[in-house]
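Hi R.,

Here's the chain you asked about this morning:
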Amino acid sequence: DLNGTPLPLDTDKVEGYLRTLRNLELTDYVTYTAGGEDLAAIRDCSVFADVTAESDAPPVVEFANVEVGGLSAESNLNQCAVSGCVVAGDLYARGPGASVQGMGAGVTYENCSVTGTISALADVSGYPADAGGIAIYGGMPEEEGSSRFSGCTVDGAVSAESLDGEAAAGGIVAAALADAAEYTDCVTYGAISAVT
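And here is the predicted structure, written out as C-alpha cells:
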C-alpha cells in the first residue's frame, strides 16, 4: 500500500519467503507468550471416546493427582474460549485427588454439550474428588466474571466420591467460586452426586 493505493506483491519476495518456510526444521520455532489481551480458541470440535485415567501410585500433591477432561485435563487455561464443542463418551478418573471435567481447557464456554457419565473416585484416604459437567471451576475468586457459560448442555450422570476427603460434583461446574462466573441458558439432565 502506497498512499492508499494497493501495490502488487513482489513475487521474488513471496517465493523467497515460501522457500524459507519449506526449509524449516521441526526444531526451528519461536516461543510466544500470549498476554491477557490474547484469546485462544477451541471451536466446533467433537470428541467421541471414553477416557479413563487410573492411578495406584502414591500421591504427589495434596489435591488433583489424576485428571481427565473431554478436551483437556487442564482446569483453567488462561483466556481460552471454547465454543460449539461436543464431547460424547464416559469420562472417569480414579486415584488420589481424582478430577474429571466434561470439557476442561477454557474460561468461557458457549453452546457446548457433553453426553455420557462423568465420574471421579478418590480412593486414597484424605484426598478430594471433583467432577464437573463442563468444568471443575466456575471462575477464580479474585477475578469476578472471569468465567462465562452460555447455552451449555450436560446429558448424563455426574458423580464424585472420596473415601474421607472432600467431594464436589456439579452439572455445569464442580465448584462455583464466589460471584466469579456467569451462567446463561445452561441445563443438566441426569443425576448429580457427591459422596464422602
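One quick note: Residues 32-37 have pLDDT under 50 and may be disordered.

Cheers,
M.
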